[in-house]
Amino acid sequence: xxxxxxxxxxxxxxxxxxxxxxxxxxxxTNDEWIVSRTGIKARHMLAEDENGSDAxxxxxxxxxxxxxxxxGEITHVLAATCTPDYLCPSTACILSGKIGSHGAAAFDLxxxxxxxxxxxxxxxxxxxxxxDAKILLVGxxxxxxxxxxNDRTTCILFGDGAAAVVLTNGxxxxxxxxxxAAARLRDVRCGADGRQYALLTVGGGTARDYRPGDPVQDDFxxxxxGREVYKLAxxxxxxxxxxxxxRNGLTLDDIDLFIPHQANLRIIEAVGDRxxxxxxxxxxxxxxxxxxxxxxxxxxxxDACAQARILPGSRVLLSAFGGGFTWGAALxxx
Length: 334
Ligand code: ACO
Description:
Elements: E1 3-12, E2 16-19, H1 20-23, H2 31-38, E3 42-45, H3 52-67, E4 76-80, H4 91-99, E5 105-109, H5 115-129, E6 134-141, H6 152-155, E7 161-170, E8 183-192, E9 200-201, E10 223-224, H7 226-247, E11 257-260, H8 265-275, H9 286-289, H10 296-306, E12 315-322, E13 326-333
Parallel strand pairs: 4-5, 4-6, 11-12
Antiparallel strand pairs: 1-7, 1-8, 2-3, 6-7, 8-13, 9-10, 12-13
Helix pairs in contact: 3-4, 7-8
The chain binds acetyl coenzyme *A.
Acetyl coenzyme *A binds next to helix 2, helix 6 and helix 7.
């Protein structure tokens, strides 16, 4: 049966690795506090001459190779990011120029850390309207460029990275280099509560009227009310997982692997407890990358495939939450 499939996947994490101990030279913190409160041990940081669009291009070229599709065949380039190179033009346009998808529609999509799931929802709509579309969806973030290094409660949490998938209507087909099989996108569910927008903001937009030469204010950087985000995250992740399973007539027994947004191990464990999900069904890689926002879910898919935690026939539940406040879940069948 023809259905929407992920035909290829690529990931890119910058070489520069910053451990918790490395952070101690920048901010008053320690490895024990960060590991016990978050589970994070390291994060990766873009090189000075590298932008989010460069990371996206590296991930995208791997995904295209994996899918066996040329950049020139792509009809739509979608970049999920909340740390774009510029407010305008979009990172998707810059990415498209870098990989050679000239003529393809290109636009950014900002749902913060839920960006990749929103991207799947957008791709699903585009593929329903244009069944021959070939869509490149990239989650890419340069979060270390918008952290306030004077705020130890937030600057320890985030890292940079990118991951890309190619989506088309098609069959499951042959195994890929980075996927055990093409993954059918069975369902997606997205939601938001804009009343909670102030819980997590990243400045640089037009809400503040900067004049040439003005020094940047603290709200230029990521600001977060951590405790409130924590509570909402646990509630919204659990609820959207239950919702997507119910509307597909599934239970958690039918899920082989749960890949949640990698923000904080305590949030992931609390969701696992609420859902009564066995720990060995929950994928975690935030210890190595920190929170890579829109790149977190596809980086998780890539690592889970590389570790053979996803096999042909696996049913995988993805779920994320983020600034906005946004949330979402998706079901993949390999
Ligand atoms: N190192 C050492 N001590 C610290 C640090 C640090 N890095 N940060 C804070 N502390 C201290 C505080 O100063 C405070 O000390 P005090 O009691 O003497 O005043 C104490 O630790 C507790 O601080 P809290 O901020 O209350 O710590 P909390 O337990 O709430 O943990 C955290 C903070 C980890 C940020 C938590 O609230 C959290 O994980 N929230 C969710 C964040 C999240 O997932 N965000 C991603 C959103 S997704 C997106 O869209 C980007």
